[in-house]
């Protein structure tokens, strides 16, 4: 006590009860409170610097103790009365309150730009029979109804999931034995034998050491890529990658560089500059380095140059990551994707492959292909694998059965390739059409992409790709969540007019390129996509192509 009281100026009288209380406090802190000596040292220093503060703090502490001890406690009877008062409403009164309650809207109407509400009305709603070659559909909340529409907007390229009785029988049997949900993440209790069987089937079919399943294909890249990257690593990506890859790159925390779309000279110059920069900085730890691209590009339908990519990755010591959502099951003689298309070994040319089971394989979910170490690492480090529910068992059996069919009979892949080339040749052979639109896709892509020519767009809609990207970048930097450009919107309305005219006049469903401007971080323009599936006939594709071309010519020439 002497050591404490010595710090007080002699001019400040201290009441005896305060001294006694303070002595008790110090004794308790020293003997009964772990780390209490730290509090005492703080009090000593505070008291030495400002004695008045010690008195005020001690008075506040005593006031709090007295207030707490003097506060009346609620009896059980008081609590029971409060509970009865709370539940005193009659059933009719409760029902009335429920009827009057209006839940808050998930999306505020004010966030939807008035001029863009037409997009919601144009979304097709398929009937209960699913997405097949011919379907029934409605639009604009049932105000528009269409029967036996020829579907040229599907990504289910092989069409085996509904044309093969083997697969439908397997699905029915699996649902009977396993039910319709996994009810848990893979690492806990979600995975069953069919999940591990599919991982083995995928790795065996595509010629790699391992595969890792995911519940949603859109989240594969956004979860798997960050599992292999940290801040300071380097990613070089094609500047026309899809939205799912853009999200993955943002989440990776790595330093990002973009090269010109499918331009191997641009890529090599960038790789060389990066390596020179790393060498000059003499970093203690060499960062991981990745090249990221797509096999069959979702926004253009052209194909990555795998031979050159593989050559550059070895030359500059980068790892190659390829997103093959649209190319697996499509490219190559047996549907094994980009590596088979170029007659290359996947394990030697591509380090990590992202794939989807919701496109050519007609199921749902996604997967990652690679070596066994990469696969094991995802099982313990990838968020979507560790924390998302596993796929329902029947969805895995669809893919396993599809791979089994493709091993013994690749006629669906061959048929798809023939129809893809037929569709492409029909559009490319029209000289009149080339005045208005440009075909972006490769002849081997089952999805044909076309967009307005740059000069035609600038003349009729008064903007260029560069101007759109510049405006978009400025608004994104300023944090705008609603992106609206009159010129862009006018072009979208015109393209939708083409889609509507094809549907109303020829009963054919095609679609605009679906773009969410507020999420896009790379240059992209509006366009139209037309797809074929393996269950179509040459006559159907040829006749439909003629009808679409005729519609495009009529509407473009009328501008």
TrEMBL record:
Residues 148-547 form the Aminotransferase class I/classII large domain. Its cofactor is pyridoxal 5'-phosphate. Pathway: Sphingolipid metabolism; Lipid metabolism; sphingolipid metabolism. Its EC number is 2.3.1.50. It comes from the Eukaryota. It holds the Pfam family Aminotran_1_2. Belongs to the class-II pyridoxal-phosphate-dependent aminotransferase family. PANTHER family: CLASS II AMINOTRANSFERASE/8-AMINO-7-OXONONANOATE SYNTHASE, SERINE PALMITOYLTRANSFERASE 1. This is serine C-palmitoyltransferase. It comes from Tetrapisispora phaffii (strain ATCC 24235 / CBS 4417 / NBRC 1672 / NRRL Y-8282 / UCD 70-5) (Yeast). The lineage of its organism: Eukaryota, Fungi, Dikarya, Ascomycota, Saccharomycotina.
């Amino acid at each position: 006590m002497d050591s404490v009281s010595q710090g007080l100026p002699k001019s400040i009288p201290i009441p005896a009860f305060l001294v006694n209380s303070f002595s008790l406090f110090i004794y308790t802190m020293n003997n009964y409170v772990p780390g209490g000596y730290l509090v005492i040292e703080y009090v000593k220093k505070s008291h030495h610097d400002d004695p008045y503060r010690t008195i005020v703090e001690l008075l506040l502490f005593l006031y709090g103790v007295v207030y707490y001890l003097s506060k009346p406690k609620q009896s059980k009877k008081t609590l029971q009365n409060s509970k009865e008062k709370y539940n005193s409403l009659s059933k009719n009164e409760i029902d009335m309150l429920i009827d009057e309650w209006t839940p808050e809207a998930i999306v505020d109407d004010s966030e939807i730009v008035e001029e863009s509400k037409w997009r919601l009305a144009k979304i097709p709603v398929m009937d209960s029979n699913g997405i097949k070659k011919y379907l029934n559909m409605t639009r604009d909340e049932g105000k528009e109804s269409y029967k036996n529409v020829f579907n040229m907007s599907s990504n289910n390229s092989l069409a085996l999931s509904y044309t093969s009785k083997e697969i439908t029988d397997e699905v029915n049997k699996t649902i009977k034995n396993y039910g319709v949900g996994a009810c848990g993440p893979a690492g806990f209790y979600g995975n069953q034998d069919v999940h591990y069987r599919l991982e083995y089937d995928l790795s065996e079919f595509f010629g790699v050491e391992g595969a890792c399943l995911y519940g949603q294909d859109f989240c594969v890249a956004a979860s798997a890529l960050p599992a292999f990257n940290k801040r300071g690593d380097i990613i070089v990506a094609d500047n026309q990658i899809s939205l799912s890859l853009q999200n993955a790159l943002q989440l990776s925390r790595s330093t990002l560089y973009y090269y010109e779309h499918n331009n191997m000279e641009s890529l090599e110059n960038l790789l060389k500059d990066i390596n020179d920069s790393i060498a000059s900085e003499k970093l203690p730890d060499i960062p991981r380095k990745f090249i990221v691209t797509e096999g069959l590009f979702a926004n253009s339908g052209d194909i990555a140059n795998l031979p050159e990519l593989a050559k550059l990755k070895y030359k500059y010591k980068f790892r190659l990551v390829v997103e093959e959502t649209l190319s697996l099951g499509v490219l190559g003689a047996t549907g094994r994707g980009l590596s088979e298309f170029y007659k290359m070994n996947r394990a030697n040319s591509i380090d990590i492959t992202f794939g989807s089971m919701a496109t050519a394989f007609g199921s749902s979910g996604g997967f990652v292909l690679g070596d066994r170490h990469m696969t094991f690492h995802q099982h313990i480090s990838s968020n979507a694998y560790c924390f998302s529910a596993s796929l329902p068992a029947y969805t895995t059996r669809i893919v396993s059965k599809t791979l089994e069919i493709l091993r013994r009979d690749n006629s669906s892949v061959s048929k798809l390739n023939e129809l893809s080339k037929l569709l492409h040749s029909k559009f490319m052979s029209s000289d009149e059409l080339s005045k208005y639109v440009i075909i972006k896709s490769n002849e081997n892509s089952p999805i044909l992409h076309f967009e307005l020519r740059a000069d035609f767009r600038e003349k009729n809609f008064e903007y260029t790709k560069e101007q759109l990207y510049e405006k978009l970048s400025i608004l994104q930097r300023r944090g705008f969540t609603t992106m609206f450009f009159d010129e862009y919107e006018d072009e979208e309305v015109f393209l939708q007019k083409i889609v509507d005219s094809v549907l109303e006049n020829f009963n054919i469903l095609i679609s605009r390129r679906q773009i969410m401007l507020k999420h896009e971080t790379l240059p992209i323009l509006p366009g139209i996509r037309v797809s074929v599936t393996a269950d179509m006939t040459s006559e159907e594709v040829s006749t439909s192509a003629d009808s679409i071309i005729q519609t495009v010519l009529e509407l473009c020439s009328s501008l």
